[in-house]
Amino acid sequence: MDSLNLIESFSEFKEFKNIDRQTMMHVLEDVFRTMLKKKFGTDEHCDVIINIDKGDFEIWVNKEIVPDGEVEDENIEIAYSEAVKIEPDFEVGEEVSEEMKFMDFGRRNILSLRQNLISRILELEKDHLYKVYKDRIGEIVTGEVYQVWKKEILVLDDEGNELLLPKSEQIPSDYFKKGETLRAVVAKVDMRNSSPVIILSRTAPEFLERLFELEVPEVFDGLITIKNIERAPGERAKVAVESYDDRIDPVGACVGMKGSRIHGIVRELRNENIDVINYTSNPQLYIQRALSPAKISNIELNEEEMRADVYLKPDQVSLAIGRGGHNIKLAGRLTGYEIDVYREGAEDIEDVDLEEFADEIDSWIIDELKEIGCDSAKSVLELSVEELVSRTDLEEETIKEVFKILEAEFE
Minimal CA–CA distance to 273: which of 359, 215, 362? Predict the structure, then answer.
C-alpha cells in the first residue's frame, strides 16, 4: 500500500464517519510519529506533513552534518562528504533534511500502522456516536427495522448506526417486519465492552410528549405546557396540559378539530386511548378531571395521607375504574393521590346489570353468561364455579376472575 492509497482510503473513511478534518490530521500524525519512534527511538528530528485534501503526506528526517568518520548514529547524523552531495554549500553543524519514502519503513511497520489507524478511527467513531446520542436522550428518532429478534429489534438510523428497541420498551401490540420504518424515543445510552449501545423506547412518557410536540404546534412553541403524562402503553394514557394564554384552549388545541391532531398520535401508539385534561392546582378538581370520562358525585380528601374517597352513581363506577383498572390507576399516578371508589347509595342496590362491567369483563364472556340466562351480577354469583364451567365454554380461572370483579361491587 503506497502513501497515496493510504491517505485516500482514510480520507474517505473520515467523510463517511463524520470525523472532523483537524481530528483526522492529528490521528494520522500521531500514528506516523509512533512508527518513527519505533524505527529511530525518537521522532524529535522528524517532520510529518499531512495534506488530507490532496491525499498525500511527507516525512522529512533532519540530520546534523558531522565531520567524516564521526557519525555515531546514522538516523540523526550524516557525514560531511555525503551532505555536500545533496547541496555543495552545506557546512559541518548544519542540518540536512531528507525525505523518507513510505516504503522505507518496511512491510511489517506499514501493516502495523494501518491497524493502528483503523483502531484509532473506530475508537473516535464510538466516542462520537456516544456523545451524539447522549445529547439526544428524550428525542424521537426514525429508523429502519434491520433485524427482528425475540427479545429486541435492531434498528438502523439514517447514517447506518445500530440502535436497539428491547421487547420491554415496545407497545404490547407492536409488530414490525424487516425493512419497515419505526419511530421511538432515545431512552438511554450505555457503554458495553467499550462500544456505545443506544436503547430506544416506545413506552416511555417522553415518546408521547414528543409526539404531541410534532402534532400540536402550540406545544412545540411553548404556548401549551404538558404538566404530566401517565401511560399504560397500548391501553390508555392521561395527559395534563396547561396554557398561560387565556385565549388558547389547551385541551381543544391538543385534540384538534374532530380529533384531527390526536388521531395521528393514537395510530402511532397502536390505538392507545388518550385522555387530555386541563391541569389545575385544585386537587379535588384535578382528581375529578383525571377520572374522566366518569362523572363524580362527591370527593373526600385526606391531604396528609394523599388519599381520596370518590363517590359515584352506580352507572359511573365501571367508567371510573376502567378496563383492567387502568383508568383509576393512571388517575392516581397523575394526581399523586391514592383513589378509592365508592358506589353512591350502595346499600340500596339489589343487583347490577352485567353490561355495567363491560370495561372490566370482555364482551364475549358477558355474552357467554347471558346465553345461559345470567344477565345480572347476582344471577352469576348465585351459581357455583363448577356449574358455570359445565354450562359455558369458559375456563375455571376465567370464571373465578369474573367472581372477584362481581363480588367487589357488593363489598
Answer: 359
Q: Which residues, 6 or more positions from 123, have their beta carbon under 8 angstroms from its beta carbon?
A: 194
Continuous H helices in 233-346: 250-255, 260-268, 283-290, 314-321, 326-335
How many Cα neighbours within 13 Å face the side chain of 351? 12
Can you name the residues that pair with 194 across neighbouring β-strands?
none
- Residue tagged 355474552 (cell numbers): 367
- In angstroms, rounded to a whole number, what is the distance separating the alpha carbons of residues 263 and 11? 47
Three-state secondary structure string covering 205-237: HHHHHHHHHHHCHHHHCCCEEEEEEEEECCCEE
Closest of 148, 217, 154, 220 to residue 184, by C-alpha:
154
Quick one: fold of 3-132? N Utilization Substance Protein A; Chain:P; domain 4 (3.30.1480)
The full length of the chain comes to: 411
Average pLDDT rounded to a whole number, residues 65-93:
76
**Kind plus residue range of the DSSP H or E element containing 46:** strand 46-51
pLDDT at 361 > cutoff 70: yes
For 141-203, give the CATH class: mainly beta
Q: What is the pTM of this model?
A: 0.67
274 class by beta-carbon count within 10 Å (0-12 exposed, 13-18 middle, 19+ buried)? buried
Are 261 and 215 in contact by the 8 Å Cβ rule? The answer is yes
Q: What tens digit of pLDDT does each residue of 300-355 get?
A: 999 999 999 999 887 788 888 888 889 999 999 999 999 998 887 654 456 778 88
Q: Grid coordinates representing 62?
A: 533532519
Q: Count how many Cα atoms sit within 13 Å of the Cα of residue 203 in the half-sphere of its side chain.
A: 15
Residue 265 sits at the vertex; the CA angle it makes with 264 and 270, to the nearest 5 degrees, is: 100
pLDDT tens digits, 141-191: 999 999 999 999 999 999 889 999 999 999 999 999 999 999 999 999 998
Long-range contact list for 27-31, CB < 8 A, 24+ apart? 27/117, 27/120, 27/121, 27/124, 28/52, 28/57, 28/117, 30/120, 31/113, 31/116, 31/117, 31/120
